[in-house]
Amino acid sequence: MSIAFLADKSQSKTTKTDLYNIAAKLNISIQDGPDADAYLLFLQSMEAIMQRIDDSPDYIHPSLLPIPTTAPREFSLPKPGENPLNAWRHRCELAASHPSSSLLAGRTIAVKDNISIGGLPTTMGTFTEILCKDGNLPISPIDSSVVSRILDAGGIIKGSSTCENYCASPLSYSAATGPVHSPWRYGYTTGGSSSGSAALVSANVVQRMKKTTEGFGPTVHLAIGSDQAGSIRVPASYCGIYGLKPTYGLIPYTGAAGLAPMIDYLGPLAEKLEDIALLLQVMAGYDGIDPRMTPESPLRNQVPNYVDELSQFRSRASATDGVGLGSSFKVGLVMESFDISGLSAEVRDTVINSAKRYFSKAGATVSEVSIPMHHEGIIIWTAASRPSSSEWACQGKHGGYLSFLPPHIRPQWPPDQRMYEMLTATNPALINLIFSNPFLNERFGPATEAKAHRKAFELRAAYDRALQDYDVLVTPCAPTVAMPHPKMTADSNGPGSSIMDKVNVAVGVTTNTAPFNITGHPAMNVPCGYSSGATTAGSEDDILPIGMQVIGKRWGDITVLKAAAIFEEGRRLAGA
């Protein structure tokens, strides 16, 4: 390792005491003398280099500069009465001055609050004082790649949507601004961490299905979320809409705060399948910046026309009255996914029965397939991502390869007592993440994490083998229907929920979704039914959505969309 230069000792505050303390933490003892003098000089030289970078002007990649908009980039907090679900974080009205296409013309979009929007803060669902000490949230100087592409396609960004604290919860109670409520039933989870995005889209479904003008405030046609363990698919499942985690490397993650590069995805949420295809088409393709993208990632001009391909596929239904739409299409029900802890009988039976009935009705073949390693998927995901996640998410560490992290996002590190208390009260899973990092590094070291990465390849191969015989695989998505939020604060009725109260409701929620974040396969929630139970009032209006997960071959995202179209056609033919 070369040394750029040797520092002027007189300009440094680093002393031999600092050197001795560092060495002691590494179980090394250094005696005073020439060796200590040399290593001290090396530290002082490194200090000078880092200080020089810290003092220099930052650089904004030209392709991430905010694109011109029709009005100034202004934002506001939601006004009283327009945010009853707590799904909005900041409001805006952004439209490109000169979009290059009209693919999204007139369509309104909400963007999850861990994705950079030029001119707006990015809070990652956490507390202002963790992001800045003066109370003035840093403003993003960049548009993330997906935001630029949405605006360039004529979309109208209406604001940032509430997300879970540091995006580290599969449920929707942990945001610093408070729980996000389901439009299906107030006080119930929307799922997380793309909680606000799912709520703002599904509110339209609820209003139409229940024939109500219930005041949900402003909603949107489409939304963008991020997904590290199921954070797009789980909210989509609880909220009864589509949510796609695409193939790893298909959509650039540039400009978004992540949990770990290996498991970071951005993707669309929408009520209609065609809109999922449309947003995928707009956002996909190599951006030249995100190191998550691979040689397999298509260039922008090579992105498939998902909208046209889906439309042409659907047109087969009119020629055959739908019965042959699924002809030669094979669906595999992953039996291990129906035998997981916490899976409700209602969700299990609904997914199995609806998959068999509706895929078959449209001409597809549905069979059971055993993938024993699926039971190990959540274990491998945890071991491969947990040891380092706090470094990426909480400390803002880069990936070790050339990357462009959002320059305005610098959360507090190291934590202090105040930070511990705030996060324990809202999202104790995040404190667990912070504690896990030094514990696992000390107890196991990097070798076990590296082995878990190798096991991820083994898990990928297991799914790939099954996908040689089936076009898609099917599992339940969320293991239950939406449940009530834990009690977040003490009141006259008693104390707030404990750490275990908050964590227990989230245990097992991502068992069927997280494995595909480490294997890279595209996976989408497809609404497949509703709970049969009602509240004590016995009202049919109290049904809650159930979702199934459809998984395809890597880079076979269009096949996942076609599978959903077959399922929809089967429902139509069955009169469901």
UniProtKB/TrEMBL annotation:
- GO function terms (MF aspect): catalytic activity
Q: Where is the Amidase domain?
A: 98-561
Gene3D superfamilies, sorted: Amidase signature (AS) domain
The source's superkingdom equals Eukaryota
InterPro entries xrefs? Amidase, Amidase_dom, AS_sf
Q: What is this protein called?
A: Amidase domain-containing protein
